[in-house]
Design goal:
The complex is a heterotrimer of chains A (409), B (154) and C (392).
Chain A (H helix, E strand, L loop, with lengths): L18 H28 L2 H20 L5 H38 L16 H11 L10 H17 L19 H9 L2 H11 L3 H32 L4 H7 L3 E2 L3 E2 L8 H16 L11 H4 L9 H26 L15 H20 L7 H30 L1
Antiparallel strand pairs in A: 1-2
Chain B lengths: L10 E6 L1 H13 L5 E10 L4 E9 L7 E9 L5 E3 L8 H12 L2 E3 L47
Parallel strand pairs in B: 1-4, 5-6
Antiparallel strand pairs in B: 2-3, 3-4
Chain C lengths: L9 H6 L3 H7 L4 E6 L11 E7 L2 E8 L7 H5 L8 H5 L6 H16 L5 H30 L3 H22 L8 E2 L2 E2 L7 H24 L2 H7 L7 H6 L5 H5 L6 H4 L20 H24 L21 E8 L4 E8 L7 E5 L1 H6 L2 H4 L5 H11 L3 H5 L1
Antiparallel strand pairs in C: 1-2, 2-3, 4-5, 6-7, 7-8
Helix pairs in contact in C: 5-6, 6-7, 6-13, 6-16, 7-8, 8-13, 13-16
The chains are: A mainly alpha (409), B alpha/beta (154), C mainly alpha (392).
């Protein structure tokens, strides 16, 4: 065979990872797992201590004050006890998207046979999101000519604010870890999270762009519609637990069924699974993610309602999306997966908040997995799916749940 | 025209006049089943002072059978050709393209506008006597730009 | 003004003062949406002006020419071999076939004999390029529908392998300038045939992966089945060729029915689907990859071990005899035709490219009407245009 003018030295992408490389990957995971063990052990050792530490500090300072001969007024503690959880929520809401975005980037990359961010922060691009955040902060904020400046400015605020408020009654692990204890916590979360639609409509209308208008209207129609099957899917949970308080629902799921299965609502035969699936689907739709990301459908509407946003305003929409995703997963963990309950009582040495976040991130993984696997639905089919499929099944599920609970009681 | 002159694999070239074009293509389409107007273009023969509009008809059942129809029209004035857009939808854009680049007008076209170039483009670029108007993309001393030095060629 | 009387031609919109004044002439529940030329899914710089009633398209006017480079005019100022590199830029996703269709016209004019080895190499390169082009279609069509992941499988993995093969074959990854008048430019490097065989085996396995990921995905099928139906009659009337025509139930393939090169030697089937909707247009291309793999297998198996790769063609001062020739072949997007008129000089007297994308795109204005904005993207994606070829 004649030798060509170009030597055969070009890169040849192997169709499969060579065995040696696979072994190396496997070994690195083993090593990583061994290294992670002490961290798990540390968390297990600390247990609920960080939370109790605050109370201890209060108690100590009270004692010290008593020794010194004066009384700390009770309202000081009240103020602290009120402010601290909110600081916690706000910090969590700042940190969670940073982690979630990185996580999504990496998972998406591995689903798509690529590496994802590998450079910033050395370890698998761990600081990529922070770099992105700095970039977004430094970017110019562009307001299109002809935009309604007030609407354009307030829209991201109104989208983000309810997302933060929604975290108030979420018990992060145990009933006591909820920033505020609301007897109607579930109702509060579902109600307040619906407020963001107004912000999306404002963004769509205020941008003076037709793509934004279409995106905003789609978002409004979609979020309002999917709210209904979502709420109805949660009715059996409330019926079963007999309370609207998130902590109460979580406590109702403590223990084991027949000594084997954890008493989580997702394991409740038929009713639990239907409710969970409907809840999951409509939550994905609520958070405007693929396959229901019609509001920002990139290939149709360029970016939908946030086409005309840039810099930090755009990042706020993004933060809201991730906050809502986190919220949906947290709710899913509390309502269906037992919140901070361990999968078996023998594993209860791992603290409740670790379990809680483990469950949340497992659900987040499902969200990401779905997003990078499915194509996008069409707007009318989306509505049909909601009104003609999810809603009837959610109602049937409520009836079924009522029947089953009646029989069992 | 007798269909037996059309042999598979052979190109058949026909010449026709403006008045016969419509009848001929109708006959080709309906009777002889040359139902695909595959190509439509023009050639500028400036020395003979004529345009040739070239049509290629193909049988969709047997694409090896092709008939080329040539239409000679004078170059002077505003050359006019009957449009085939009513018979073949594929004539629509191809006639617009020919109009755009040659300035040949197609009578009865539903939308006789330029397609690739913008309205108001000076001249008809594929005519042999087309003179390029210097613009900002040339190294035009004509419009007061410094002359570009040609790159040294090895 | 009553609805339907507005003359919404693209030029009037382009030449008009602004969209806002046009808006007044629309009825109150309609709006104009200017899609492109900068839009993620118009596949380049196509502009489509849509008149929308809610989200339903009532009129669509494609506006072309943003990438018009005057290739046909440039041809009149290039010698015959020089023009080959410009054909690369027409349809930059299957440049091999463009090279080939142009060289075929010149060869027809000059009546050159092409050595068998060169002809087989043309088929191998052409079919590989057809696969590459269809892979890109599968990827971008997935993106149009909203599935991002198949893109990185089809485009980022398999197509890269083909480009690597091409890089080893001719040194270029996109614009090859490989097919020359009378043959091809380079012989195969050592071990290339084996690599190509390995790739073909790999490719066949990948089709199953695409089927699982995209082709039979219920949402994907819901988005594409029955959408943008193009009937057989309409397709023929619009002169649509290639996979788009075959999706409408017309088994028309020049490789089969008017064989050129050595295609009559190979066993393969013409991929046909009956419904003419977006899914069928997608599936025809998917099936064509399978058939191309079959052709490739046979061509690589029967590849002559030795022989000339360039026929008897003058190396300088190539002057085909005066006359005219029309040659066409089955491109990745339809019939790639070249109409060449020579006056016996050094440069073509007139060269016309029958660009399949351009002619296929004409049907867009008709099939878009009545569908939603999301379907516009699906239909436009399924027609699979390359703007370099549309605008030339």
């Amino acid at each position: 065979m004649a030798k060509g003018p170009w030597a055969v030295t070009g890169p040849w992408v192997p169709s499969q990872t060579p065995a040696a490389l696979r072994r190396r990957y496997f070994m690195s995971f083993v090593v990583l797992g061994v290294l992670l063990l002490p961290i798990v052990g540390l968390v297990a050792y600390l247990g609920d201590r960080p939370w109790r530490l605050i109370e201890d500090v209060f108690a100590l300072s009270n004692k010290a004050a008593a020794l010194a001969g004066f009384q700390i007024p009770a309202w000081h503690l009240d103020v602290l006890a009120t402010v601290l959880p909110f600081v916690f929520v706000i910090v969590l809401m700042q940190v969670a998207p940073i982690f979630l975005v990185w996580w999504e980037m990496k998972i998406a990359a591995h689903i798509q046979i690529r590496m994802g961010p590998m450079w910033v922060g050395r370890f698998h691009g761990a600081l990529q999101t922070i770099a992105d955040g700095i970039k977004l902060l430094l970017k110019e904020d562009i307001v299109p000519r002809g935009a309604d400046r007030k609407l354009h400015f307030w829209a991201p605020v109104i989208v983000v604010a309810p997302a933060y408020v929604c975290f108030a009654p979420i018990p992060f692990g145990k009933t006591g870890f909820a920033p505020i204890h609301l007897d109607v916590g579930l109702l509060f979360v579902l109600g307040v999270s619906g407020l963001s639609v107004i912000g999306l409509l404002m963004a769509g209308w205020g941008s003076n762009s037709k793509y934004s208008v279409l995106g905003g209207l789609r978002a409004a129609a979609q979020m309002v519609s999917y709210e209904i099957p979502r709420v109805i899917a949660l009715v059996p949970v409330v019926m079963w637990a007999g309370t609207l308080s998130l902590g109460g629902i979580m406590d109702a799921q403590a223990g084991l069924w027949h000594g084997v299965l954890p008493r989580w609502f997702i394991f409740y035969p038929v009713v639990g699974q239907i409710a969970f699936i409907i809840y999951l689907i409509s939550s994905i739709a609520e958070t405007n993610r693929t396959p229901f990301d019609l509001a920002e459908a990139e290939s149709e509407l360029t970016s939908g309602f946030h086409t005309e946003y840039s810099g930090m305003k755009w990042a706020m929409f993004f933060m809201a999306e991730y906050a809502y995703m986190f919220l949906a997963c947290a709710l899913g963990a509390v309502l269906f997966l037992g919140g901070g309950a361990p999968i078996h009582p023998s594993l209860s040495f791992i603290p409740s908040y670790a379990w809680f976040f483990l469950k949340v991130f497992a659900l987040v993984f499902v969200f990401i997995w779905v997003r990078w696997t499915y194509p996008r639905m069409r707007v009318d089919r989306l509505m049909e799916f909601c009104w003609k499929f999810l809603l009837p099944w959610a109602l049937v599920n409520v009836a079924l749940a009522g029947f089953v609970f009646l029989m069992r009681s | 025209m007798d269909p037996k002159f059309v042999r598979a694999g052979d190109d058949l070239w026909l010449k026709t006049g403006i008045s016969d074009l419509h009848n001929l293509s109708e006959k080709l389409k309906n009777e002889l089943k040359f139902d695909l107007l595959n190509m439509l273009t023009a050639v500028d023969f400036i020395k003979e002072n004529k345009f040739e509009v070239v049509y290629q008809f193909v049988r969709s059942s047997a694409p090896a059978d092709a008939v080329f129809v040539k239409l000679e029209i004078p170059r002077e004035g505003e050359p006019n050709v009957p449009s085939l857009a009513g018979l073949f939808s594929s004539a629509d854009w191809q006639e617009r393209e020919t109009f755009d680049l040659f300035g040949i007008r197609f009578d009865g076209h539903p939308n006789p506008t330029r397609i690739l170039l913008w309205e108001g483009y000076p001249g008809w670029p594929l005519r042999k006597d087309y003179v390029h108007t210097p613009d900002r993309y040339d190294n035009g001393a004509e419009i007061g730009l410094p002359k570009a030095t040609p790159a040294a060629h090895p | 003004m009553p609805q339907g009387t507005v003359n919404l031609t693209a030029d009037k919109l382009a030449g008009g003062p602004s969209f806002e004044t046009k808006m007044e002439r629309l009825s109150e529940h309609e709006m104009l949406l200017n899609m492109g030329p900068q839009h993620p899914s118009t596949h380049g710089v196509l502009r489509v002006v849509l008149r929308l009633d809610g989200e339903v398209v009532t009129q669509a006017v494609p506006d072309l020419g943003y990438l018009h480079r005057g290739v046909e005019k440039l041809a009149e100022n290039r010698t015959y071999p020089q023009f080959i590199i410009l054909t690369d830029r027409d349809d930059y996703l299957c440049a091999m076939l463009n090279n080939w269709s142009y060289c075929m016209a010149v060869e027809k004019l000059m009546k050159v004999e092409i050595p068998e080895r060169a002809d087989t190499l043309r088929i191998i390169a052409g079919e590989l390029n057809r696969i590459a082009s269809h892979l890109l279609f599968i990827g971008t069509f997935g993106i149009d529908i909203g599935a991002f992941t198949p893109f990185l499988y089809a485009f980022g993995r398999e197509r890269e392998m083909i480009l690597d093969l091409f890089e080893q074959l001719c040194g270029a990854r996109i614009t090859y300038n490989y097919v020359r008048i009378g043959g091809v430019s380079n012989d195969v490097p050592e071990g290339w045939i084996e690599k190509a065989k390995k790739f073909v085996q790999h490719m066949k396995g990948c089709l199953k992966e695409y089927d699982n990921l995209l082709s039979y995905n219920p949402i994907f099928m819901d988005r594409t089945k029955g959408i943008g139906v193009l009937s057989k009659e309409k397709a023929i009337s619009y002169g649509i060729t290639g996979p788009n025509l075959r999706a409408s139930g017309v088994p028309l393939d020049l490789r089969k029915q008017a064989p050129y090169g050595l295609y009559s030697k190979f066993q393969f089937d013409v991929a046909v689907r009956q419904n003419g909707d977006c899914w069928d247009r997608y599936m025809v291309r998917r099936d064509e990859i399978e058939q191309s793999c079959r052709i490739l297998e046979q061509a690589l198996e029967t590849f002559p071990a030795a022989g000339e790769i360039l026929g008897k063609v003058p190396r300088a001062n190539l002057r085909p005899p005066a006359g005219e020739a029309y040659s066409q072949l089955e491109g990745a997007r339809g019939w790639l035709g070249v109409y060449l008129v020579s006056d016996g000089g050094l440069t073509p007297y007139r060269l016309h490219v029958r660009a399949p994308s351009f002619i296929n795109l004409a049907a867009l204005q008709e099939i878009l009407v009545g569908w939603k904005v999301a379907d516009v993207v699906a239909i436009l994606g399924s027609i699979d245009i390359v703007l370099g070829e549309v605008d030339r």
